[in-house]
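User: Assemble these into one structure.

Assistant: Restating your components, then the assembled model:
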Amino acid sequence: MNPLLDLDPATVRKARSLARKAGRPVVKLAQSHTTVSVERATLRLAGLSGADHERVPWVNQLVDRVREDVGLEHGVTTPVWDALRRGEADDLLTLAQKSASGSVSFRLPGGADATRARKAARTAVARGIRTIDKQRATRDRLIKRHGDPKQRPWIYLIVATGDIYEDIPQAQAAAREGADIIAVIRSTGQSLLDYVPEGATREGYAGTYATQENFRLMRAALDETSKELGRYIRLTNYASGLCMPEIATLAGLERLDMMLNDSMYGILFRDINPIRTFVDQRFSRQVHARAGIIINTGEDNYLTTADAVEAAHTVTVSQLLNEYFAKEAGLEDWQLGLGHAFEINPEIPDSFRMELAHALLARQLFPDAPLKWMPPTKHMTGDVFRGYLLDGFFNLVGAMTGQGILLVGMMTEAVVTPFLSDRDLALQNVRYVLGAAGGLTEDFHPPRDGFIQTRARQVLGEAVDLLDAITSEPGKAQLLEAIGDGTFGLMKRPADAGKGLDGVVERAPEYDNPAITMLEEGATK
Amino acid sequence: MTPQDPRTTDSAMPLDPMPAKGAKESGGGARKATPDIIRPYGDTTGDGMVQVSFTLPVPHDKRAEGAALQLAAKMGLEPALLVHAKAMGPDFTFFVVYGSAKHLVDLREVKVVEREFPLLTPKDVNAAIKSRMRRKLVVVGACIGTDAHTVGIDAILNIKGFAGEKGLEYYREIKVVNLGAQVLVPDLVERARAEKADAVMVSQVVTQRDAHIHNTKAMSAAFREAYPAGQVPLLVVGGPRFEEGSAPKLGVDRIFGRGTTPGEVASYLVHELAQHKATQEKR
């Protein structure tokens, strides 16, 4: 494909190298810390699940007890498998149960004991890693059998009733109506829970809890529907909030196909501690990389808080940072659903041309990534007729600029949760535009130095300037300083504040985590 | 009376012919008098035409179309015209119906509950705080009691906001301290004092046996005990179960119900705190 924008390759290289410069100290920070959720995710890989009668998960119990006895600086696995080797319990679940009643004491083994405990831990965690590998192979096989969607972008629809048993028929109906990807929105507030709820859940607020059982039920239902439709229907959930590593792990174990996973969203929009987020982020992305999961990043959120024209470059900066963090964690280009959104005020002259310029910029900066194109929300006024037109123009930009994943816009955005008929009308809108104008990518070449090319270059230039400013902040991790200063989305989030800070632990030199080791080595044993 | 007085722009104005004190007599008197009884307007006065769309849980066939027309008739649309019917999967049908509504609207019976404060944009809120208070307005928020559902308080305070409006964190001139869920009343009081809060905001979403009322009363009592009279921060509670107008009974300044947006809360804070400031200066 001929480049449509004439971007200066030197500027593009500079943007990427600045993103690397901003991101690298944060990666170092992630490599030198662990969190309670990373440790719990590791235990989940070793097969520990379930909860006590008060619904406190066993992984939380065990990690908390180990932390009380010996701290988490060395990782949870060495003291846990040392206790198992000493015969404190026959298996992991029994150990967790006994430790909860206070009848197990943990120690930090030394010498040969430590080596043996580590080896045993690795063998146990490897079973979880191999399950993730098997699920990935199953996905590949099912895609081969049923096929991918015939068109690009893939059509992404949301269901969220709060009740998994209501979600299932709705998701199946949405797939029959044409959705390629089903996203189950989480219950409000789950991101701030420091544990993953257990079991099938029937009550949520504006969404359904992400649990291992809910994942399994929905994936099984969509497998049936994929077979019926002759098209593999992908399932999406959210690896974000305080339990990001655990939810990523459960997604890998239960063969979810896409996960929302943004490098800074939790910090900025949920006031989660920055270090907690970056440590959790790296682990969850390593799991996603291994599981063949496509991540979706959340740049659209910047545009809902700031002006979509003035803040256009913050989207580009965030995409570049997300790309750096993703690749560092082992994700490949085809797994990067970098986000952007149609949020320019429609009252502004040339708003549609600017939308085209911004969308093309993302397309050209990340040619091999399946970009995720998000519909208007901020300028949906409740006038559903006007909203329907706006969604049509949104779809048109998606078609003209070759987006990878299109989240279907609802004319009832900001009015009610979509009616059955709203969803059907929205899909008709998408089908009409993709059918009528999908081939426009062939004809549409913005003229050299015209409005679109100039605007795209301007946004890229502003992005480079912002990255420049971030990397010239004082301190060891400039990106953290910038986040603390309120560079993104106007929010100041200092590194020593925010939710989940007490779950962050600096690693000791002897820290061991067999999951991270195997994810980094690509090992299966 | 200020030009913002909502009554001067109310469409029901002709029903209240008493001119506002001191207001100028309207010059031309060109405004057409609205009749008291009106009907919807399609393309001719009095045609009563409306358009509705809905879905019925039946497969699309002749019977379904008949069912749609029956519903239209019961809704008072006569004659009704079924202009569109489409199957939504095997079990549902979507309809668009146009028809003449036989109901009449009596403007004299329309009752409007006026908001006691003008709605401001975030920009205006920031400007008002800056010029009137010359410092940031401090808001401390929490869910008190056993309620762990921060949905309400987060919708108002978090930058992410609610209904397309950004939360109070987004306002440059407002400092937000969100203490989260299950905060004890003494802790809330202590934190409010430490932060020199101008307003304290409490959310009660999930409640049993009137827990929201007991919690709110306990909270307001604790604040009135801890602060000298006249210096208690503005006490604001929100939640779907509170009765409109029960604020005095609960000992708080304002109650916000379901569907309240951050912009309304911010506008209220500015309105109240500017007033307080004015009365304090008079003392």
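Residues 1-29, 278-283 of chain B have pLDDT under 50 and may be disordered.
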